[in-house]
Specification:
homohexamer; alpha/beta; seven-stranded parallel β-sheet; two-stranded parallel ribbon; NAD (chains A, B, C, D, E, F)
Chain lengths: 273, 273, 273, 273, 273, 273
Amino acid sequence: MTTTSIEKPFNRILLTGAAGGLGKVLRERIKAWANIVRLSDIADLGAAGVGEEIVQCDLADKAAVLALMEGVDVVLHFGGISTEANFEAIMHANIQGTYNIYEAVHKHHVKRVIFASSNHAVGYYRTTDYIDADMPTRPDGMYGISKCFGESLSRYYYDRFGIETVCIRIGSSFPVPTTRRMMVTYFSYDDLFELLRCSVFAPRVGHTISFGVSDNPGKWWDNKKAAHLGFQAKDSSTAFTHLFPDSSAYPEKDDITTIYQGGGFLLTGPQYK
Amino acid sequence: MTTTSIEKPFNRILLTGAAGGLGKVLRERIKAWANIVRLSDIADLGAAGVGEEIVQCDLADKAAVLALMEGVDVVLHFGGISTEANFEAIMHANIQGTYNIYEAVHKHHVKRVIFASSNHAVGYYRTTDYIDADMPTRPDGMYGISKCFGESLSRYYYDRFGIETVCIRIGSSFPVPTTRRMMVTYFSYDDLFELLRCSVFAPRVGHTISFGVSDNPGKWWDNKKAAHLGFQAKDSSTAFTHLFPDSSAYPEKDDITTIYQGGGFLLTGPQYK
Amino acid sequence: MTTTSIEKPFNRILLTGAAGGLGKVLRERIKAWANIVRLSDIADLGAAGVGEEIVQCDLADKAAVLALMEGVDVVLHFGGISTEANFEAIMHANIQGTYNIYEAVHKHHVKRVIFASSNHAVGYYRTTDYIDADMPTRPDGMYGISKCFGESLSRYYYDRFGIETVCIRIGSSFPVPTTRRMMVTYFSYDDLFELLRCSVFAPRVGHTISFGVSDNPGKWWDNKKAAHLGFQAKDSSTAFTHLFPDSSAYPEKDDITTIYQGGGFLLTGPQYK
Amino acid sequence: MTTTSIEKPFNRILLTGAAGGLGKVLRERIKAWANIVRLSDIADLGAAGVGEEIVQCDLADKAAVLALMEGVDVVLHFGGISTEANFEAIMHANIQGTYNIYEAVHKHHVKRVIFASSNHAVGYYRTTDYIDADMPTRPDGMYGISKCFGESLSRYYYDRFGIETVCIRIGSSFPVPTTRRMMVTYFSYDDLFELLRCSVFAPRVGHTISFGVSDNPGKWWDNKKAAHLGFQAKDSSTAFTHLFPDSSAYPEKDDITTIYQGGGFLLTGPQYK
Amino acid sequence: MTTTSIEKPFNRILLTGAAGGLGKVLRERIKAWANIVRLSDIADLGAAGVGEEIVQCDLADKAAVLALMEGVDVVLHFGGISTEANFEAIMHANIQGTYNIYEAVHKHHVKRVIFASSNHAVGYYRTTDYIDADMPTRPDGMYGISKCFGESLSRYYYDRFGIETVCIRIGSSFPVPTTRRMMVTYFSYDDLFELLRCSVFAPRVGHTISFGVSDNPGKWWDNKKAAHLGFQAKDSSTAFTHLFPDSSAYPEKDDITTIYQGGGFLLTGPQYK
Amino acid sequence: MTTTSIEKPFNRILLTGAAGGLGKVLRERIKAWANIVRLSDIADLGAAGVGEEIVQCDLADKAAVLALMEGVDVVLHFGGISTEANFEAIMHANIQGTYNIYEAVHKHHVKRVIFASSNHAVGYYRTTDYIDADMPTRPDGMYGISKCFGESLSRYYYDRFGIETVCIRIGSSFPVPTTRRMMVTYFSYDDLFELLRCSVFAPRVGHTISFGVSDNPGKWWDNKKAAHLGFQAKDSSTAFTHLFPDSSAYPEKDDITTIYQGGGFLLTGPQYK
């Protein structure tokens, strides 16, 4: 007898990209929110645990995605390619894939999606800029462009059909910052989880773009346009200050990885020569 | 011998609406600010305590209000109707009444008024908006419209005669939030009292509109236009989070009480059918 | 046989304040728009012409206004007091009166109102300011405050009931500018009529605030928030430049009638001593 | 001997989508700009005229597009699907296709592209809004989303490689407005050609988004962010005012085709039911 | 008998820099404004004509400037160095010199100054930017910095003493544009004279910064912050379009004289190597 | 053997104005940042301590300043006159002096300067204003004007040569606030030192203007334009609240020292009578 599951807010939550870096982090944590957690990835997800459903599927497969959405109450869309790659691969996974998610969401009357967007949607702002979510996008590669696409697409589904989405432009969600840039973009797992909680449970979110970042000194992103989510970061990269002592090694004037927010990403991928 | 009263900042402070919900809360607290607290209401105020003067009066009675202002140093104008009502009643109490207050203030050379405005002056902004005090008003009923009137009127008395006013757009000032909306709009009594203190004692306030709200997560109002008051909320609705557990019960798409900030107020009053 | 009247866009248009300065100007011109022009004023309107209905009434008389609205398709609300006056008179005619208009409009399902607001709703901006309709109001007297009230009220009726209003902040609509200030605020009758035409016939206006001013050099008002009306002024005060030759007679530093846009209005009315 | 061709500014200009509605209009006109006009479409283009090269090709064919770009100095990218359609078709032609164009442009060191974007990139703004090119996109369908993609992509190629693009959000470029909406969005062929000329020949354009619209009364779009192009519309829909006489037939309150700028487009395509 | 001079608006106007390029242009034209035109320069000014007073003086000579201001009603301050030069020369003529002017103006109770500032106060904005007078200055050399100084200084004299100034950021005021950049910055002599007239005779100007530019296509400067001056350019560089035919000769990506508004100025002066 | 000095981030740091109030405070503290601290002032600096170099020099002496910069890695420019004074003295020390610093910085290829600007660059904003670093300057005297000059000059050296500067508009950096105004402008020595640390060690600062102020209630300055520095004030004037008890002694309406942010400074200096 599982009386406890009755008390969970949702019956079924879908997490795409569950085999990815953040997917693995979230897999356990989100069990508190739903009786059933449906996990999806193109990669192997291991055996289903208690309260889990495993669906291995390619997001670019429209019929598979439609089936995947059956009986789902809310979606955490973390699937697709999560780094710079060649355009066709990104188009397949992130453009066709995200379209398939929204068409399935629409057909199955799912009310809300949390979409894992990325800071690389605005990576061509300067590191001396302080930006908010209403400023024009400045993607720093094919990956960032695909995230801009997802933000446009989800905006349309909200304006046209009232399907709510929170787009989270995730900074650097890792256990520990490993570069100076990550001291600015660090997003702790606990803060990520809290922002997801706010995004999933706020009564109304409309279409919201929120930057996913901890309370780091020098952060570039102003979350005022997402104030209604009620997210308050608890962590800060100051916990790691000792890893990056004060240094006079100023970067070169023309080092674009420090001029622009996107950092090293600007030099990756097939577009760079 | 009353040497202590000599040390109080003001000789006489006037509190209108002293029999109302917030009036009762303030009656004791503001004694620290003035040798004499003059209390006024259309309703019975009981017996005058030490350092109190009781004046029962209808704010729409011009002569009575003129007399009420005699010898007053500063005014806390909390009088009038504080909820949605039919227009004529509101015009009588809040429009004619507030005009009478300002004419009396002008004639008696009072230098400053703290005016209890309301969040319902902007209740038709969306719950996903984040607004500041320079944005156009969006009243959500006759009550809210009368508060817009008070803000316009007091602006005029400042521009024309230099009479200073702080308009406080009060959120929900109650002991405990009783709805999800109040988790956003909660304004603790201590925070209300502190904002009043800042408003009364700041050396210069000009004409300032400040949102009266505690430091609640997800709050809709940016107080940067009132930064010079120096108000810093100490309380937060997070103290009551346990009363409103995470829930998947999303409101209906067309439920205007969750689409707009004004909440249930939008459905009250004679205007609604 | 009156086949021509069949081709007029509306069956019945209501013009309040028809005996006033602008009312008289409009009385003939608007006949092109409706089979029947209902004219209302507290003052005598003379005999009804062809296609006219005359209703003498006090706008503060709720029942009379309700009757006045019977069978009306669209309202040009020019009634009430159109200059600075004592507050009670203004409250009676402009606050109670305008409320009565909107309640009648609501009860009779009229879809659109054109409201004669005034530049005196923003008369306390400086003559070196350039403002648009989203900036906070700065009324310069009781008259201006009553116009702010009308703008708030009509906004509410739009947000709550979908009743559309165009508020026209009329500058100086006279045959000829008679002061230097009027060289800036001049609004020719032809331009007034054209702005009314745009306001009445644009398919959608929502709630719009438009400045009523001709294409005068040095004008203070940016109409971009009313761009969708499609109004383009044809006239300009340059036609009267010869009346105000270049002069070195700079006003005194502390002459508020030239510091603020409201001009001489700032020194009128019972508030001034 | 053809000395005149020597005087043309460019050697070779590429026009994609040359068989489309606007492609046909431009085919003759742009001959003045280049010795050779290379015309491309997936549809038949007829025989090559003097100074023309014809290349029938599918923009989704990467190799074909790479070959198409050989020897090109400047590109007018009007190709792809120009109306609402199912997503896969749009992804093929407009997303893969535009990517192919930019990769070819990059590989062949072409310096500038004029990209035919669309007002449907912002079709979910209201008809009472007045917007500029820095405001967030609000696409009104799959077609509009593909145009947002093209704008993001071209921005990246500018930020990363310095390839300049002018994105023209074309309104309604037809000989005559056939709906009331087109009175607002009308873009005459002459104005289109002039905006193209400005875009092609301005010494520096960086990455610019310009609204393609004539000088129509009531237009929704502020081109100040593209002021440096020097475009000044010569035509106006006022030439067609007689086709749309003043009418009192206000649209229904919930008619989204008049609430939003996108108009009838909002109800087309496979997404609508 | 000179009855005509009695009708001139001012008794005495002072023009500094009267031997300079624009000084010579203005010398005759401004005679219509004053009975006496006092002309000053460090260079020779020739013989005084009818209604002229000639004062040769170094603006850096405080006592001389104080004497120069005796009996003056209004000042057109065109003196100092008007091109890039070494800092000490500029400090002498433009910084010390302009300070001397304002101290003399203050001591002699002159009410208004028209200050010839320069577009080089903002020369480091991009040629794809569209700026207004409230945006931060971006000087492009020592000359531009000295103009920023003059704007700061005159602002102070207004805020502190009420002395009014119009700062005109002059574009390129020459008979004919001789470079492509001048097609954007062209400021005809007639338009210069008209802007001066507006600046001198507007009843109130406070402290105003106005861009001095004709109505050229593609101009970079939005004069809305100076709208109250009532200046409307009559001329345009389109009169010279034939001098600069359409050309495909795009500038190099790193050619800063086309990236930034300051143009060739960026490469002049002792600071450049 | 001094192995510890090898670990210091810089080899040599230059502090100008080292004998001034803040210079003395910083002299010891900044030793942690560099093997050698070069101290400069026009006044006597006492004997050089360990790791110190003493250079007495007049900043207006170009050759001396050029020599002073030899071998310097980073500059803290606190030299010059730090209060209102007559213009010629300020021009000598602050205008010529700061120019000399930047020319020397340029010639010696120093990469970064921290420039002690002042809140008096914006002292003519109102005490009810809340401003950020992009708003136009409003200097309140000759001293403030010289700081505006330094900000313009350093902006130029960044735009033209890539030399980075952080301009710190210092509030009131003293041990204890001694006036009510200083409760708003207080900048503790620890917070000053921390802001300097952020300014010196942030990898990229471009040209940044930051307000130097502790986390005081009611502060007038929004540091969002300097967010990338990562500065977070630790102190607040609330520690001194007991020194300024609540008081009803409102300042006079026309007391400009409380109307404007500059305070008593507005009444000092030779300009005031």
